[in-house]
Amino acid sequence: MTVSRVINGKGNVNAELRRRVESAVAELGYVGNSLPSSLRFRETRMLALAISDITNPFFTSMARGVEDTALEQNYSVIVCNTDESETKQERYVRALVRRQVDGFLLVPASDTSESVRLLVSQRVPTVLLDRRIDGCPLDVVRGNSEQGAHDLVALLIALGHRRIAALLGPLRVPTAAERLAGYLRALAEAGIAPDEGLVFCGQYSQASGYEMARSAASVWPRPTALLASNNSIAIGAYKALRAAGCRVPEDVAIASHDDMEIGPTIIPFFTVAAVSANEMGRVATRLLLERIAGGGPEGPQDIVLPAEVIVRESSGGPVGEAARG
Amino acid sequence: MTVSRVINGKGNVNAELRRRVESAVAELGYVGNSLPSSLRFRETRMLALAISDITNPFFTSMARGVEDTALEQNYSVIVCNTDESETKQERYVRALVRRQVDGFLLVPASDTSESVRLLVSQRVPTVLLDRRIDGCPLDVVRGNSEQGAHDLVALLIALGHRRIAALLGPLRVPTAAERLAGYLRALAEAGIAPDEGLVFCGQYSQASGYEMARSAASVWPRPTALLASNNSIAIGAYKALRAAGCRVPEDVAIASHDDMEIGPTIIPFFTVAAVSANEMGRVATRLLLERIAGGGPEGPQDIVLPAEVIVRESSGGPVGEAARG
DNA sequence: CTGTTAGCGCGTTCAG
DNA sequence: CTGAACGCGCTAACAG
Fold it and tell me: pTM value?
């Protein structure tokens, strides 16, 4: 119609007619629908971002960087948490390819053949993030794991440590292998013979970091420093050392990959009134889905979740949880 | 075609024909396209989630809760950061309504009339998160701000504090007003007369928390405790107190709203090799957009960002940054 | 059991 | 300068 011309400002339209259309648009609050042209011109202006877990601050900042950059060119970003599961990842990839996303940003899950094959075969523009995949013809953007591990170990050596344990992720994940390589290179440069008993391979998780650190602490002579291959492992290791009565860094030093961009302070350290944001998201989404289905309770709801006070150091006095309705 | 019947398993199809179709599907790696039926049946199976900033751990866990719940019913979630800007928010709302999202989850930006009007007038199912809007006929899911503030202040009073400053967000945001109400109620219950000079209104930001705490610390007699209205304010206040030579909690106690679900440890405290995840996201997205446009460098890229070692307490030795290429 | 028709709503292209 | 026709790809409804 002529309406399209007016809205898109293309082609000349009689001034009077244009005014009539514009007022009608304003009156009816017409918004339009981008699906038809997406269908016709094969362009949805949507990107998919599949990460392990948005709850990890590393992926959070990644997501923010993606979103900001996408917005500059009017793209929207669909975020998916794969939890490192190939099954979940593949399910997402299929669903989003069907939704005709214009491009895919993927932090590949540990075992990741099928999803990538699909993306390649469907010719969906794809960039891999954080991890490369051997022999995969896709762009990758990642950090320098080898150099990072090397520099951390070199630092520990410079501080006088000679027995340094490495707490790695699964070796089939390239970053884990690269971090091991950096660790070994730093040792070699310092003329320290590597000790196989000090290299541990597990998962990129707190639980695994906890276990690996416990094993490392029971080796004799005990290592004086730990290299943690990611932030979760570092946190788990720290907990294990504390549980074992080791002080950090006096008894055992820790150096880790991955930073958490939170601000230079001690957290959790504040006494807070906590409302579960996760629960809030769940409750709201459940309600929204009911509404979409045309159901849900009569009239607008105002659902108020309780705040629970968690007493920590910042308020002084004894520490502990004090739940409240 | 009959193909559709086979794929969707609807209606009976001759076994032989079905086999032929199935093998062709497998052969060609046919994936299908959900746009046409979205167009026809007005159902995109997409939800929009607009939050202030995914970088804030509070919204991160919210996003995770939303995403998990949406996935259970095969919905995808488009995440948007509004940065509390009504302009940005409205732009997103328009774009996503055009994209025909099935529902909208909105943490309304401070000044938020137009977007909400649009959602209501277009009859897009919408649930408000975290903040209510006066006289708005939409569902809301939020935390109990009044009770949380009350409980925190009651705790501080029980610990012996009588001069408690309140560091609030902008009063036109309902949560700020509610937190003030809770603060006043707790004082009243303890028979403490409120002191206007101890109530500060600013923004929900670290910078504002810093400023407000600085002002609070210069009041005489100095308050012995602070109530911070969100996690950013708490962090800013903590920094200001430290800069002013006050110890927390010995000189001034702090209690805050909003928790950060990170695990019971001290962060940042680890010496790390940091790669900017944000930068990684940006670089990857820029590259992907070039690819989508059919450009970008020849052949698959392998872009490696440097790791920078940040020396903190966990490694022992002197603390400071040691950048490396 | 299988093939045909029509329609979702936009933008482009071509006639009037 | 404006209106009409067509096509994107899928599926519901109906005809064969």
Answer: 0.86
Looking at the structure of chain A, the number of domains it has is 3
Q: Which residue of B has its CA nearest to A60?
A: B55
B238, A265 contact by CB (below 8 A): yes
Which is more confidently placed, B311 or B185? Answer: B185
- Residues in chain A where the model's pLDDT stays below 50: 261-268, 323-325
pLDDT in tens, A205-223: 889 999 999 999 999 999 9
| Helix H or strand E segment including A272 | strand A271-274
- Proximity of residue B39 CB to strand C below 7 A: yes
Q: Cβ of residue B36 near strand C, that is under 7 Å?
A: yes
Which residues in chain B have their CB less than 8 angstroms from residue A140's CB? 300-303
B31/A315 Cβ within 8 A:
no
Distance CA B183, CA A262 (A): 27
CA angle B129–B134–B135, rounded 5-degree value? 110
Q: Do A127 and A219 have their domain in common?
A: no
The answer to whether residues A109 and A172 belong to one domain is no
Q: How many CB atoms lie within 10 A of CB B12?
A: 7
Distance B36 CA to C6 C1' (A): 14
Tell me: pLDDT of B66 over 80: yes
Average pLDDT of span B52-71: 89
DSSP state of A224: S
> What is the tens place of the pLDDT at every residue in B224-271?
998 988 878 888 888 898 889 888 788 888 888 876 544 333 444 566
Chain D positions with a protein C-beta closer than 7 Å: 1-4, 7-12
- What is the spatial distance, in angstroms and rounded to an integer, between the CA atom of B2 and the C1' atom of C5? 14
Beta bridge partners of B32: none
Dihedral (CA of B232, B238, B242, B246) sign: positive
Tell whether A300 is covered by a domain. no
Given this model, what pLDDT does residue A189 score?
97
Element (DSSP H or E) covering residue A310:
strand A308-311
Same domain membership, residue A320 and residue A190: yes
Integer Cα distance of A128 and A271 in angstroms: 40
Which of B39, B69, B78 lies closest to A39 in CB terms?
B39
| Whether B180 and B320 share a structural domain | yes
Spatial separation of the C-alpha atoms in residues A43 and A137, rounded to whole Å = 23
**Are B189 and B227 within one domain?**
yes
CB-based contact B277 A61, cutoff 8 Å: yes
CATH number (domain holding residue B48): 3.40.50.2300
Same domain, B71 and B156: no
